[in-house]
Design a protein that fits this description.
Blueprint (H helix, E strand, L loop, with lengths): L1 H23 L8 H12 L13 H25 L7 E3 L11 H12 L7 E3 L2 H47 L10 H23 L15 H15 L5 H26 L5 H11 L4
Helix pairs in contact: 1-3, 2-3, 3-4, 3-5, 5-6, 5-7, 6-8, 7-8, 7-9, 8-9
């Protein structure tokens, strides 16, 4: 029975490590614990129907929730590994009575001290395999901290690129760009630049799918609200007489199709054309 509890704890740790791996280093469309947390918050506080001011917090709160889940899972899992072996498998300081410090709370205390690499020393592993397991937990704690910092440093530049693209599209719309103005090398360059930027957003949504659950706001920084104008430009430019413009329009249309495919496959699950998927994307981000 003791070993069964330890195996359950080890299984919890492995589940957390698997989720960490698939969230940061091998994102998949099949989701995991982190995707469940992010999606749950998004559905709980959808744009347009959320409590005032709470919508913009869904992404950051989701990330905090995921990190807390990872840390709690690792700490509780390792506590279950240690608990059946208290007090025999541990050495206690002279000020502690081993029989009085062998409960689940004490096991959790030991786990938290080790995962945080505090090294207080009042309770230390004494049994052979426990002396190996404890440093492994410390390494997992250090890896968790490093992964969290890397996640934050990766996801916010992705959000900046998405919002920059939205502003660029908005600037083109406010400039009153007309189809005849696209009949030039400059028009082709504009369309080609949009295609490149949309491709980067596709890569960001694939590498950091959690970025989808960050609300860009109701203004010009919302890609969901502005992407329709890029689709209109691609449709208009396909009829241009300038060969370079037609080629750039085809590339922009292909980039928009790829974006719609990513949104459909990973987030929206809307069966329809690329235009319908982009419309569903705008609706999901609060655009009416």
């Amino acid at each position: 029975m003791d070993w069964l509890v330890s195996l359950i704890g080890a299984a919890i740790v492995l589940v957390i490590l698997r989720d960490l791996f698939h969230t940061l280093w091998h994102p998949t469309r099949h989701g995991g614990l982190s995707r469940i947390v992010m999606t749950g918050l998004w559905r709980l506080l959808p744009p347009g129907r959320a409590i005032r001011g709470a919508t913009g917090l869904v992404g950051p709160l989701g990330m905090v929730g995921v990190v807390v889940m990872w840390a709690s899972g690792v700490a509780v899992g390792w506590a279950l590994v240690y608990w059946p072996h208290l007090p025999e498998g541990f050495a206690f300081s002279s000020s502690l009575e081993p029989a009085e410090h062998s409960g689940p709370v004490d096991a959790l205390y030991i786990s938290l001290v080790i995962v945080a690499t505090l090294g207080l020393g009042d309770i230390a592993p004494a049994e052979g395999w426990l002396r190996v397991a404890a440093p492994l937990e410390a390494l997992v704690g250090f890896a968790l901290l490093t992964a969290t910092v890397s996640w934050v440093l990766g996801i916010y530049p992705a959000l900046a690129r998405r919002r920059t693209l939205a502003l660029r599209i908005c600037h083109l719309r406010r400039a009153g760009l007309m189809p005849r103005q696209l009949e030039s090398d400059a028009g082709a360059a504009v369309l080609d630049g949009l295609a490149c930027d949309i491709t980067r957003v596709c890569v960001d949504l694939t590498q950091y799918p959690e970025s989808y659950y960050f609300h860009d706001g109701p203004g010009d920084t919302s890609l969901a609200r502005t992407i329709g104008f890029a689709a209109d430009l691609a449709e208009q430019a396909r009829l241009a007489e300038h060969a370079g413009v037609r080629l750039a329009a085809s590339m922009l249309a292909a980039a928009l199709d790829d974006l719609a495919a990513v949104l459909q496959d990973r987030f929206l699950h809307t069966r329809g054309t690329a235009q319908q998927v982009l419309t569903a994307y705008a609706h999901d981000h609060g655009s009416r």
